[in-house]
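#onboarding

Welcome to the new folks! Below is a worked example of what a typical request in this channel looks like: someone posts a single protein sequence, and someone else replies with the predicted structure as tokens. Don't worry about understanding the tokens yet, we'll cover that in week two.

Example request:
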Amino acid sequence: MTNQQKQIIAHMKTYGSITNIEAMRELGMCDFRKRISELRKLGYDIVDIQEANTNNYCYHKRYFLKGEPANG
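Example response:
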């Protein structure tokens, strides 16, 4: 697992969820959705919901960790 993948998992465990905006601002990640895809392929059960941004003109996804792979 890469350092960025570890950071995402740690953030979700600590704060309950993460968005691409939070990943960019707080973790300095530009390719966050790719990391989520990689984590899912590694067996992490990550679900998402669509939320309105605070300005209500566009949307983003919020990701939640629901389960880890048996060996993770």
